[in-house]
Amino acid sequence: MVFRSSGGIPPNNRDICIYPRQRELSRISTLIPNCDPMTYALFFPCGERGFRINQSYSELQFYVHCLSLRKDIFNPILYGGKLMQQYVVDSYVKVEGNRLNFIRHNQRALRVESYFGLADHINALATKLALDQVFHSFCPRVSLGVQERCNRTFRMSCR
To answer: What Pfam families has UniProt attached to this entry (predicted)?
Structure first.
């Protein structure tokens, strides 16, 4: 799914609409731990809480744990069929959306100012081709630290 706003920036957050009985519509953020049990009641019949911010594990690790196959423990998510597919897609969108929000709000920490020459070049090409100005938000490598880890593993194997 691709979202675009007037400025070309994808939306910062996604909200879930709740229609409580006898009350007006309310919205909750997908970051609230009760979002998954409210959305997927068949998978969480006892209302187990979902991912919480400020934990020692990442959101991706939480969802990998939820989808893992464990010996002698029944996992209803794995038997959900098409609902499981929807859960996986929804979890993926949450994880990637939060990663993009982190990148968008931490451009200074990611040292993006070194890419400004590239952004100027892209905007000059867009102007030359009579296109709209291009929104740019630079993303780091997908796997941070992979090269360093490979080098460290190689050095350790040579000892």
So the answer is: Helitron_like_N
Stretch 91-97: mean pLDDT? 88
> What share of the chain in percent tops pLDDT 70?
66
Whole-structure pTM over 0.70, yes or no? Answer: no
- The identity of residue 145, as a single letter, is G
Query: 92-123 b/e with 16+ CB inside 10 Å = b?
Result: eebbebbbeeebeeeeeebebeeeeeeeeeee
Q: Which two tokens stand for residue 111?
A: 């040292």
Contacts of 24 (CB under 8 A, 6+ apart): none
**More confident of the two residues 4 and 101:** 101
SS3 110: coil
DSSP 33-97: TTHHHHH-TTT-TT------SS-SS-HHHHHHHHT---TT---GGGG-THHHHHHHHHHHHHHHH
Identify which has the larger pLDDT, 81 or 156: 81
Place of tokens 């879930």: 16
